[in-house]
């Protein structure tokens, strides 16, 4: 359907609306003042080292048994088993805190590798042993307010934090809000009982849905024998074990049995116990407040800079919208308004993962789709086109407060396994070729959008054995006593034997430090707009734009085992380009194309020596279509030419005058997705700002958004 071109706006392209009822265009474009820069999160320029404290470095052997005497089933300590504490602690991780001491293997080493931030596994007091495993990983808390005695004292945590601050390293704590340690058991067994069969009941017996109370501070009073699908009981010795103490009340949990991983879809993921761990009634304001106060104390007392939030998709959908503002208030009051968080939700589809940010209120999430696609590309089993397709979905993350630049990206982790394991077992490479694939992996991690996270041990080429996942992916940095880990393959080196990993010098460490240096020296490589330029065969290439200096960078990756050639479009014509990493300099032709020749398994980073050209005056039009993947409405802005412009999308209810910003996009295709909650008659428009800071507005289009069925 088309509609009349208003006479006042002859310069603008006629908007076309697909699949939606439209009315005549208004002649009242949004003001140029709405043009905004694309958002960058407070951690967008950071790079993280993710460390499991128990496995990094033992600074004090006196705490290895956690202050109790006995065998491993009591102390949790058994350094020859991959399921128990090994002795690493806060004192060891802190080290001597001397950045000038090349032998200091604590935080000073992490700083030397170029990292600007750390994510540490949860440091809180744990239930030491459950079944045949100890809580060395930190995900079974009892007392949220203190460090676990295996890791150290409150004074040692304070010393750790003050060293991190001295070295300029941010510290993110891994926090769990979904569950506590497993102390609750059910007489009726652990099988999940759905709400349809047994609803929640108030203490007086009235059936109710906790989600109805997921706003405000009221919540019904519950009773142990009346309210739940199961009757919760706690071993007498553990009835006072949890802090905050309100979490000792069994009525603060869902008590409906274990998530059935084979069949559960939907509500059961949020109400069920995660492998027996007591699933908190996160809809209950008392729980929200207790978790905010307890975790907030680490911000107030120690100046923690942010949280990594475990099992985020298993928490009720309203929780983060209530809990995070409390945490943020605490951080602001403590003098850190830049405090931020990222959540864990193991979803590999951006349209689904982005819901955690757009609907549930997380500022960022771990980028599982990136990990999935990058791993497939890096092992040589997918083309550059797969990366191009991945980044094409970045627009799903764009809102007024979020976008893909704030995603935390990674290559492997403590659950799924290490990138070294994937490369060693899923690619055909060996020896030097395998090392080159691992270097390529870190290049891709550091030079594409998002906040890179390196899993400790990857920098010395650790791999894995067996299935390579979970406890098999949690090797010691210090001299290990686990037999398998002594003989495991190391990428770029020999098996470690009985030596410490700190003494080795690794090509991966050097590359990681070099990549950090590149990002620091050329900020666009960390935070500049990323525009996909090429994704075909073994090659993926993208531009990164420095808006301040109007400089274009080009990064390109070849995952093939032979030299790859590609003619790649850019926005900077007739310029020489200097190589910053790999390859040699090139020259772009009059059409701004560069001819690349990439050695096998390699990366090139190029910087244009000429500034971006001044383009013709900008213009923009918008169109809208239904996105059948998500049920959102997809808005696309068309900006002629190849200038690296930025587009801000706005909307207003028809008949009103003020515009609401939907989001800003700085990479073609320019798109945002309207939340499905917006319905009725709207006017939608876009404001473009080009690289020379000239601004133009589109003609608004009228759309009638009917709710998706
Ligand atoms: Ca120790
Ligand atoms: Ca839950
Ligand atoms: Ca885009």
Characterise this structure:
This protein has 709 residues and is of the alpha+beta class. Strands 13-12-7-2-1-15-14 form a 7-stranded parallel β-sheet. Strand 20 and strand 21 (586-587) form a beta hairpin. Helix 9 (368-378) runs antiparallel to helix 10 (384-392). Mean pLDDT is 94; it is low at 1-24. The site of one calcium ion has 6 residues, from strand 28.
Layout of helices and strands, plus pairs?
Blueprint: E1 48-51, H1 72-75, H2 90-94, H3 107-112, E2 117-120, E3 124-126, E4 129-130, E5 133-134, E6 141-147, H4 154-167, E7 170-175, E8 184-186, E9 200-201, E10 207-208, E11 232-234, H5 267-271, H6 285-302, E12 306-309, H7 319-333, E13 340-343, H8 350-358, H9 368-378, H10 384-392, E14 408-410, H11 419-426, H12 431-447, E15 451-455, H13 483-487, H14 507-521, H15 524-527, E16 529-536, E17 539-546, E18 551-558, E19 564-569, E20 576-581, E21 586-587, E22 593-598, E23 602-608, E24 621-626, E25 633-638, E26 646-653, E27 660-665, E28 670-674, E29 680-689, E30 695-697, E31 701-705
This protein binds calcium ion (3 copies).
Residues 58, 60-61, 63-64, 87, 89 line the site of one calcium ion (CA).
């Amino acid at each position: 359907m088309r509609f009349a071109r208003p006479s006042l706006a002859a310069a603008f392209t006629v908007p076309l609306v697909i699949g939606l009822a439209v009315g005549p265009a208004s002649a009242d474009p949004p003001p140029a003042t709405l043009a905004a820069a694309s958002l960058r999160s407070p951690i967008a320029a950071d790079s993280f080292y993710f460390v499991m404290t128990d496995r990094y470095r033992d600074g004090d052997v006196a705490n290895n048994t956690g202050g109790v005497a006995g065998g491993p089933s009591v102390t949790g300590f058994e350094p020859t088993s991959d399921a128990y504490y090994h002795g690493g602690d806060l004192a060891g991780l802190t080290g001597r805190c001397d950045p000038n001491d090349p032998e200091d293997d604590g935080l000073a080493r992490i700083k030397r590798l170029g990292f600007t931030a750390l994510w540490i596994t949860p440091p809180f007091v744990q239930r030491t042993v459950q079944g045949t495993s100890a809580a060395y990983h930190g995900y079974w808390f009892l007392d949220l307010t203190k460090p676990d005695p295996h890791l150290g004292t409150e004074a040692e945590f304070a010393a750790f934090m003050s060293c991190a601050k001295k070295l300029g390293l941010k510290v993110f704590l891994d926090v769990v809000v979904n569950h506590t340690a497993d102390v609750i058991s059910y007489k009726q067994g652990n099988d999940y009982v759905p709400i349809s069969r047994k609803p929640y009941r108030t203490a007086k017996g009235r059936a109710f849905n906790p989600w109805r109370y997921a706003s405000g501070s009221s919540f019904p009073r519950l009773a142990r024998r009346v309210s739940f699908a199961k009757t919760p009981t706690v071993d007498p010795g553990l009835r006072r074990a949890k802090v905050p103490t309100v979490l000792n009340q069994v009525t603060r949990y869902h008590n409906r049995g274990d998530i059935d991983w084979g069949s559960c879809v939907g509500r059961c993921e949020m109400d069920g116990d995660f492998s027996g761990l007591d699933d908190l009634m996160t809809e209950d304001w008392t729980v929200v407040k207790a978790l905010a106060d307890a975790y907030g104390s680490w911000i107030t007392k120690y100046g923690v800079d942010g949280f990594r939030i475990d099992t985020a998709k298993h928490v009720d959908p309203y929780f983060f919208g209530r809990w995070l503002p409390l945490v943020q208030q605490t951080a602001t009051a403590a003098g850190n308004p830049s405090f931020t968080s990222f959540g864990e939700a193991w979803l590999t589809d951006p349209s689904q993962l982005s819901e955690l940010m757009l609907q549930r209120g997380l500022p960022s999430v771990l980028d599982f789709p990136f990990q999935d696609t990058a791993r497939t590309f890096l092992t040589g089993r997918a083309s550059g086109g797969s990366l191009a397709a991945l980044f094409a979905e970045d627009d799903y993350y764009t809102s007024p407060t979020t976008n893909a630049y704030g995603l935390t990206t990674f290559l492997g982790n403590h659950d799924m396994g290490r990138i070294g394991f994937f490369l060693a077992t899923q690619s055909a490479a060996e020896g030097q070729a395998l090392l080159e694939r691992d270097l390529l992996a870190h290049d891709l991690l550091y030079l594409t959008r998002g906040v890179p996270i390196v899993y400790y041990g990857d920098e010395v080429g650790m791999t894995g054995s067996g299935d390579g996942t979970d406890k098999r992916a949690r090797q010691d940095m210090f001299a290990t006593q686990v037999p398998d880990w002594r003989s495991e393959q190391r990428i770029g080196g020999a098996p470690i034997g009985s030596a410490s990993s700190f003494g080795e010098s690794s090509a991966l460490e050097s590359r990681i430090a070099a990549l950090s240096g590149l990002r620091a020296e050329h900020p666009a490589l960390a935070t500049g707009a990323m525009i996909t330029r090429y994704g075909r065969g073994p090659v993926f290439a993208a531009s990164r734009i420095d808006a301040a200096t109007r400089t274009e960078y080009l990064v390109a990756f070849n995952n093939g085992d032979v030299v790859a050639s590609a003619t790649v479009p850019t926005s900077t014509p007739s310029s020489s380009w200097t190589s910053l990493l790999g390859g040699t300099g090139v020259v772009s032709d009059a059409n701004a194309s560069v001819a690349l020749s990439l050695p096998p398994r390699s990366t090139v980073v190029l910087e244009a020596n000429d500034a971006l050209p001044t383009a013709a005056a900008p213009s923009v039009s918008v169109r809208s279509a239904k996105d059948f993947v998500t049920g959102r409405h997809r808005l696309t802005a068309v900006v002629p030419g190849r200038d690296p412009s930025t587009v801000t999308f706005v909307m207003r209810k028809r008949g009103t005058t003020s515009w609401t910003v939907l989001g800003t996009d700085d990479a073609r295709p320019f798109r945002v997705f309207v939340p499905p909650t917006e319905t009725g008659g709207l006017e939608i428009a876009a404001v473009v700002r080009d690289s020379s800071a000239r601004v133009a507005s589109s003609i608004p289009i009228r759309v009638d958004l009917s709710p998706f069925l």
